[in-house]
Design brief:
Number of strands of chain B: 31
Oligomer: heterodimer
Number of helices of chain B: 20
Number of helices of chain A: 15
Helix content of chain A: 25-40%
Helix content of chain B: 25-40%
Distance between the termini of chain A: 38 Å
Number of strands of chain A: 19
Strand content of chain A: 15-25%
Strand order of the largest sheet of chain A: 3-2-1-4-13-14-15-17-16
Structural class of chain A: alpha/beta
Shape of chain B: globular
Strand order of the largest sheet of chain B: 13-14-15-19-20-23
Structural class of chain B: alpha+beta
Largest interface: A-B, 32 and 31 residues
Radius of gyration of chain B: 26 Å
């Protein structure tokens, strides 16, 4: 369906027909066609393209109409888990191979994540995507490996997205685990053929042993413009010089500070024209959405005196990752301009305020409408109605919305004409929490019955992070000993902020995150 | 003693189950023409050809062969060993069959395919043809067993089923068998042995003997003949008599304690599934009341003198009296086919508490295996030694590497992956061997039985039964007695084709579904022994022990001689015992035959070594999660108990 959104447009476009500059904003309209692409971006009351005569119009007045946020680093499988750090540890972890070896890691991370992903994969996926959505995210990386494609449901799953068949599967490759040289060589070849490769690389303290992972990517021929390197915080900045045709780095400052006490040298990367993006990482050491992570980026920027502007920070969750996806999909994302993906978020704003400061300071309560591929998926009741949303249900964010209600347009994974509420999703997750053993065993039996009967396979998802030190076979002897911690609220809340203070290795810097949400 | 609450109705129900269906009707849907003519039925031409139940087309045959080529060349863990042992290349044989697949008749195709798989001599790795009905067993209503030496065996009927199924009242337990379809009986056994699984001749013969009267239809072809003519004598010097008995098909179903398809336990099985269903059929035919009582939900005893148990399908226990040794414990483990090893072990502990601690005979004869965890964790109850479990390795091939790398298998196979990848450079044929039962799970309960223990196995003690026997010997728990040359020699973790299909989803080796209910099972992880036999495979070798030849008295009088033989090994061993009881803040340790007591709290010494003599030690309960008591005699640890607070 087509859709028109009228408001204060923040297009972040470099197309001269749209705006005079990338940072320009104006009152206008975004016209999204039936194909889910932006047909036009117009100023004032200028006439729009033909074919929109009956299109619903969502008028957001002075609120900001901006490109949907793009999170290039997450792990959806672990979204429901709380922050984790090894108890009583007093020094930061040297690198990413250390924390999975800690004794509490499997019981705190691997096993509860396994219980949820094995017993209730669809609900876990729904939870993770809704959590992204309510923070304005329209595309997210980090989909769990799955036995069926995940595209076309809620937010865009970057590794699975085909744009309705326009691009082939496996156009975006990803690996959380460190690859061997042979595998990196294969990725280098795939990138030369046009694929984009998102790779966790050299995650750790500066100078730690894992910086050789960056060297390995170079040796394998992976330092190409299609490489998206996540973290690289252990890398000597001088090594960025070897990335002669630079790609992108995804910066996850919360996770870096939480685990290692330091983070990526962003100015050094920017100085070498590396495209910088921000990613939220995962439940055990990350923020709940990329809008939250942007605030951490701002805190680090200020604390280090890096001088990165709010505009440049906002681009790290919109235009910059949008350019990465444009390479992979041959279709612009993260910018509002003709031909680009119709992914839009509306952020509440007062007139004449600095739009980029407003975006940076916005919380989940300020997210008024989220549109993916021209489909309104989440927003205030009024805007969802104006935008012609269907199959909606009310969603509660635990008092974070200051009395405003929100609607969610969610349909069941296997039936796109059947409405599904977040309350039902949460109920099922809580059932698994209550009895993980029974839920895992039931799921295994159903999966077996399905393969035995020759029916359509049930959706299966797999974990993508290290397993840790576990018994042979990966699980505790008695599955009843698996404890799934409380399912975390979708939005950043006071309990989340309380769990930051005095934990992790951020030296108090992350305590400042709570100030954005007061 | 079982009392059927349903009285006559229950008896009729049992008889119906034991009667089952004539094999001819089962296979062909209607009685064969000759039988119809005898019954005076019309409508079928005399001598009309019997149609086979399902005919595969060429494409379906290729799918089956290609799946087997992929699996046997890429995942079958005994492939190098079988090539060496039998000078036989199953992969090449499958390729040859593939090249002429369309030229063969349906019967020729299945015979050729079955022969290739049977050539592996591996009861874990079986092919079942189209429409092989799950759980069906072709039966004759009696049991044949042998006694005497391997060279001069005597074959006798040891049990008969319901009299309604055998019209000759003189055909009873104890008759000596002379011929089988006019073939001398010993020769018939040898002929069948050539078609059976089993690495050693005695193992093949044992399975052949069983297959003469019981054949699982999902594990191999049905009998060729619909009826069997049996020549027998009531006494060795008596008159030769003949009886004709038709094959019937029965469905004994699984016990409610057995492994459930798709459960977590189902990936950790070591079992001859065909032998398991045959075991169930034997139970139905010869211990019908016990079989029928399974669904009642109450604990039952097998017969007078046996202890009631909830796990009656897997366990039986009683006190036996030996002329020389006096009262001893006897624990029969029929099968390790259980879904919940914790519940199984808890029941064994309960039974052990009811048996005298003067000595124990554990009888695993005919145990076809089951859950690996159940077999290996059970060992700890009988010894103060720390149990080292058997380790399992995977064939190092591109397929197993892809399987281990698949994100869906990572949590289960991650530990095997480094060595599978290293094998590319090292040239190792196998991955690193790793236990499937975590060593910590083998010591989580600790010793529970004080007395000496002897274990009995035979060539039909298979797979998880082999693992128990291996652990019994390699962890120096007691004496192993073997009827025959050793245990059954099935050394692997076995998967079904469903397991393998699921595990290979998303890999370059993804398997298609098979047509017409065709299926197979495959040995996927190869078992290697520990202790003094460290690294030795179990497959085809089995676990040798002290040999024993069965007697006629054994067959007809509840193993009388065998029990006496085993009891002899329990004699002359210094008796020690320990019992630990926690009462609030104190613990009472009752010992006999021990001279030192050590106490460990959460793995640390709690106090200096305590000199003790027989009697009760009242001690304060240490403030810790795990308390361990070790009792020594002349410096050797003879008893160990673990208490979890």
């Amino acid at each position: 369906m087509s859709l028109v959104i009228a408001g204060r447009i923040v297009p972040l476009s470099r197309a001269p027909k749209v705006a005079a500059s990338e940072s320009a904003t104006f009152q206008g309209k975004v016209w999204i066609g039936n194909d889910g692409r932006i047909a036009a971006v117009t100023k004032g009351s200028a006439q729009g393209p033909k074919g929109f005569e009956t299109a619903p119009v969502a008028d957001v007045d002075n609120d900001l109409v901006i490109p949907g946020f793009i999170d290039l680093h997450s792990h959806l499988a672990y979204a429901a888990l709380p922050l984790w750090v090894e108890p009583n540890r007093t020094v930061p972890f040297p690198h990413h191979d250390i924390w999975p070896t800690r004794p509490t890691y499997p019981e705190s991370v691997t096993w509860p994540a396994y219980a949820l992903i094995e017993a209730t994969p669809v609900e876990l996926l729904a939870y993770a995507e809704i959590r992204a959505l309510i923070g304005g995210t329209t595309s997210i990386q980090g989909s769990p490996p799955s036995n069926r494609p995940l595209d076309g449901w809620l937010v865009r799953n970057i590794e699975d997205e085909t744009l309705g068949g326009e691009v082939g599967r496996n156009q975006v490759l990803a690996s959380t685990l460190t690859l061997k040289s042979e595998q990196l060589g294969e990725r280098a070849t795939r990138m030369r053929q046009g694929a984009t490769f998102i790779y966790h690389c050299a995650e750790g303290r500066p100078g730690s042993i894992v910086q050789r992972e960056y060297l390995a990517t170079r040796t394998a021929g992976c330092l190409q413009r299609h490489l998206v390197a996540i973290h690289t915080n252990s890398v000597d900045p001088a090594a960025y010089d070897t990335w002669s045709e630079p790609g992108a780095i995804v910066w996850s400052p919360f996770s870096n500070l939480w685990l290692y006490g330091t983070t990526t040298d962003v100015p050094a990367a920017l100085a070498r024209n590396i495209n910088l993006c921000v990613g939220s990482d995962w439940g055990p050491s990350g923020t709940r959405n990329v809008l939250g992570e942007l605030k951490v980026a701002s805190l680090v920027n200020e604390a280090n005196g890096w001088g990165i502007t709010d505009f440049d920070l906002v681009k790290m969750i919109t235009a910059n990752p949008g350019d990465v996806l444009a390479q992979a999909w041959q279709r612009q994302a993260g910018r509002l301009q003709p031909g680009a993906l119709g992914d839009v978020v509306v952020i509440a704003a007062r007139p004449r305020t600095d739009p980029f400061k407003m975006i940076l300071r916005a919380t989940e309560a300020g997210v008024r409408l989220v549109v993916v591929n021209g489909r309104p998926l989440y927003g205030t009741e009024a805007l969802m109605r104006q935008a012609g949303a269907t199959y909606t249900s009310e969603i509660s964010l635990n008092g974070r919305l200051q009395g405003q209600s929100r609607r969610l347009a969610l349909t069941r994974f296997d039936a796109d004409v059947q409405s599904w509420s977040f309350a039902e999703v949460l109920k099922r997750l809580e059932e698994v929490r209550a009895d993980p053993k029974a839920a895992i065993e039931r799921s295994r039996r159903l999966a077996f019955a399905s393969i035995r009967s020759g029916g359509a396979p049930r959706l299966r998802l797999a974990l993508d992070m290290p397993t840790g030190k576990v018994p042979v076979g990966g699980l505790p002897k008695d599955l009843a000993t698996i404890v799934v911690p409380p399912i975390q609220p979708l939005a950043h809340d006071s309990e989340f902020f309380a769990s930051i203070s005095g934990r992790g290795f951020h030296g108090g810097l992350l305590d400042g995150l709570a100030d954005f949400y007061k | 003693m079982i009392h059927l609450t349903g009285g006559r109705d229950a008896g009729a129900t049992l008889l119906r189950a034991q009667t089952g269906q004539l094999l001819s009707e089962f296979l062909f849907g209607t009685p064969p023409p000759a039988a119809r003519a005898r019954r005076g039925e019309s409508g079928g031409e005399a001598g009309a050809r019997i149609n086979l139940a399902y005919v595969l087309d060429g494409g379906e045959r290729l799918r089956i062969i290609d799946a087997l080529i992929t699996v046997i060349s890429g995942a079958y863990c005994h492939l190098p060993q079988k090539r060496a042992a039998y000078a036989f290349d199953p992969v090449q044989a499958l390729h040859l069959l593939r090249s002429r697949v369309a030229e063969l008749s349906e019967g020729e195709f299945h015979l050729a395919l079955t022969s290739i798989v049977l050539g592996l001599r591996d009861a874990h790795t079986r092919y079942s043809g189209p429409r092989a009905r799950q759980g069906g067993v072709a039966t004759l209503p009696f049991l044949v067993e042998q006694y005497g030496s391997h060279d001069e065996p005597v074959f006798v009927v040891s049990k008969v089923s319901a009299p309604q199924l055998i019209r000759d009242p003189k055909f009873t337990a104890g008759v000596v068998l002379e011929s089988w379809n006019s073939i001398p009986f010993a020769r018939a056994v040898d002929l069948y042995a050539d078609r059976e699984t089993g690495g050693r001749p005695d193992a093949r013969r044992a399975r052949a003997l069983e297959s003469l009267t019981f054949r699982a239809l999902e594990g191999g072809p049905p009998p060729d003949e619909m009826l069997v003519d049996i020549g027998y004598r009531i006494l060795p010097a008596g008159t030769r008599r003949e009886i004709r008995i038709p094959w019937r098909v029965v469905h004994p179903a699984s016990a409610n304690t057995s492994q459930r398809p798709g459960s977590r336990a189902s990936r950790y099985l070591a079992a001859d599934q065909a032998a398991e269903v045959v075991r169930r059929a034997k139970k139905m035919m010869f211990s019908g009341a016990v079989w029928q009582a399974e669904r009642s939900g109450v604990a039952v005893a097998r017969d007078k003198g046996w202890i009631k148990t909830w796990f009656q399908d897997a366990l039986a226990a009683r006190v036996i009296t030996d002329k020389k040794q006096g009262d001893l414990g006897y624990l029969r483990i029929w099968s390790f086919d259980v879904d919940d090893d914790d519940a199984f072990i808890a029941e064994v502990i309960r039974l052990l508490d009811l048996l005298p601690e003067t000595g124990l005979i554990i009888d695993l004869r005919g145990n076809p295996g089951g859950l690996i965890w159940a077999a290996e964790r059970l060992l700890q109850l009988f010894t103060p030694n720390t149990i080292t479990p058997v380790r399992f390795s995977v064939l190092a091939t591109p397929l197993t590497r892809a399987l281990a790398r698949s994100p869906f298998n990572r949590i289960e196979f991650e530990a095997w992956l480094p060595s599978l990848e290293a094998a590319i450079a090292t040239g190792e044929a196998y991955s690193q061997p790793l236990p499937l039962t975590d060593p910590a799970w083998c010591t989580d309960i600790g010793q529970r039985y004080s007395g000496p223990v002897v274990c009995v196995v035979d060539p039909n003690t298979y797979s998880a039964g082999d693992l128990f026997a291996a652990g019994f010997v390699d962890n120096e728990i007691g004496t192993l007695v073997c009827v025959g040359e050793g245990s059954g020699a099935g050394g692997a973790n076995v998967w079904t084709h469903y397991d393998l299909r699921e595990a290979l989803v998303g890999t370059p080796f993804e398997l298609e579904g098979l047509p017409a209910d065709v299926g197979y099972t495959v040995a996927i992880r190869r078992a290697l022994r520990s202790g003094a036999a460290d690294g030795m495979p179990i497959e085809d070798l089995g676990i040798p022990g002290i040999p024993y030849e069965m007697t006629l008295d054994d067959l007809l009088h509840e193993n009388r001689d065998l029990i006496g033989f085993c009891a002899g090994f329990l004699a002359g061993i210094p008796r020690t015992a320990m019992k630990v009881e926690v009462n609030g803040n104190t613990v009472a340790v009752t010992t006999s035959g021990l001279d030192e007591l050590e106490i460990y709290a959460d793995g640390r010494p709690f106090e200096a070594v305590r000199k003790i003599s027989d009697g009760i030690q009242q001690l304060p309960l240490p403030d810790s999660e795990v308390i361990e008591f070790a009792g020594r005699r002349n410096g050797e640890i003879c008893q160990r108990r673990k208490v979890l607070t």
